Each structure stands twice: as structure tokens, then as C-alpha cells.
Amino acid sequence: MGDGYRNEASDSGLGCCGYVLWGLSIVMVIIFFPFSLCFTIKVVQEYERAVIFRLGRVLPGGAKGPGLFFIFPCIDEFKKIDMRTVAFDVPPQEILTKDSVTVAVDAVVYYKVFDATGSVINVENAFQSTRLLAATTLRNVLGTKIMTELLTDRDSISSQMQHILDESTDPWGIKVERVEMKDVRLPVQLQRAMAAEAEASREARAKVVAAEGEQKAARALKEAADVIVESPAALQLRYLQTLQSISAEKNSTIIFPLPVDLLQGMMRK
């Protein structure tokens, strides 16, 4: 499309009136020289391009710049286009997801102009049109997703939005470089329900862990009991160890230990 309008501009002449006006403009520049240089020489920065219209037609060769360029008074008009990457926030959009949940989502879009001439003649206001299209695309894309996907699959959703926006703004000379979802705000009731569900899940996992710990402790006690039954000396050592730990607590309880042999005789009777 860009080559089409350039060829059309170069092939179509100015016409008789156009050449007359062009000649008068040159005469004015010569008469008021060198003061006319202040009105005929323009400068664009490294990050800018100038789209020049001569009697309503785009000059062949595309946008001018960076640097100096020359225009003729009365017949030339120009418009500067910023070629740098621009970022803007998409206002929070109330969106009804596929599973009938109302959420508020906002995003940020990064874009730049890659065709200065197309961004001027193909759309009235390329920047405003891109903003409106981004808000519409955000609603359309998220309306096909369920709530869980909005929370866990943001990267793929952002890539899908970036692809749709870039394809739509290509005729306008706009390149959408990146789209990022900033925040997903859920209703208060849904937040409470999700918090209660998460709390119940954590309690369930804690109970499972505690039960597994008790099971392992019971097995260890059973193995210790089997060892003590097989070795009576181990029982006596455990008895003496228990007495030592009790005496270290410095309490007022007096313990009279009984011989282990006497306890075994009582247990046999």
C-alpha cells in the first residue's frame, strides 16, 4: 500500500495552477532572501520524520529526515512524526469471562511508527485509533477466556493480543511491539471464596503431613519395642537413661528405683 500511494503521488503532476503557484513561491523566496530561509528550511530530529504535502499531495520519496529539508511557502505543508517507541495504559475494562465471572483488567501497550507516511494518510489519528483498538481487543480476547486462564496464562494471552493488534495496525504504519496485562481485579466475594478454598487446601495438606509423621513415629516405636524385647539389657539401659533425664530437671519429686530383676520377677508372676 505504501508503494501504491508513492507511485500515485509521483505520477500525477501538479497541473497548470500548481506550476503557477510553485513559480510564485520560488519568486517570493528569491525576493525575500535571506529572510525567507527562516520559513523554508526546517529541521527534524534523529527520531523524527517529516511528511511533506505539496498542494495536498505527498511528495515522492516518502518522509524526510533526519536533518534539514526545504519547503516552499504557501504550497507546502509538513507534519512531524515521532518514530520512537510509545507506551500507553489501557484503562481498566470490565470484562465478562467465558465462565460468567466479571473481572476488571488493565494493560499496557508498546508501539512505534514504522511508516510515517502511512500513519498520516491512512488514518486520521494513528495514536488515538491504536488506543481505542487496544481497549476493544482486550475485551474481545479476554471474553473468550475463563478466569483461571486470566490468572495463570498471561503470557500467551499477551502474545495473542499483540499479534491481533499488530496485524490490525499494519496498514496504519504502526508496529505493536509488546502487550502486557498489568492487573486482574476479581470481585470481593470471589476473592473471599478463593481465599477460603486455599486455606482449606492448606489445612488438608497439613493434616496429611501430620498423619504421615505419626505413622512414621509409630513404626519407629514398634521397632524400638522389638529391639528391647529381644535384649533385656537394652530395657535396663533405657530405664537408667529415663532416671537420669528426670533427675536433671531439678524437681522436688523423689524417685526410688527398683531393681530390674525384681520387676521381671513380678511380671512373670
How would you describe this protein?
Belongs to the band 7/mec-2 family. By secondary structure, the chain is of the alpha+beta class. The protein has 3 domains: about 1-80, no CATH class; about 85-190, Tetrahydropterin Synthase, Chain A (2-Layer Sandwich); about 220-269, no CATH class. It has 10 helices and 8 strands. Strands 3-2-5 form a 3-stranded antiparallel β-sheet. Strands 6-7-8 form a 3-stranded antiparallel β-sheet. A two-stranded antiparallel sheet has the order 1-4. Helix 5 packs across helix 7 (about 155-170) and helix 8 (about 190-230) packs across helix 9 (about 230-245).
What's the CATH architecture of the largest domain? Answer: 2-Layer Sandwich
**Total domains, how many?**
3
The stretches of 5 or more residues where confidence is low (pLDDT under 50) are 1-12
| Number of beta strands | 8
Listing every helix as H and every strand as E from the N terminus to the C terminus, the arrangement reads HHHEEEEEEEHHHHEHHH
Portion in helices: 40-55%
Strand order across the biggest sheet?
3-2-5
Mean pLDDT: 78
| N→C terminal distance | 109 Å
CATH class of the largest domain: Alpha Beta
Largest sheet: 3 strands, antiparallel
The shape, in one word, is rod-shaped
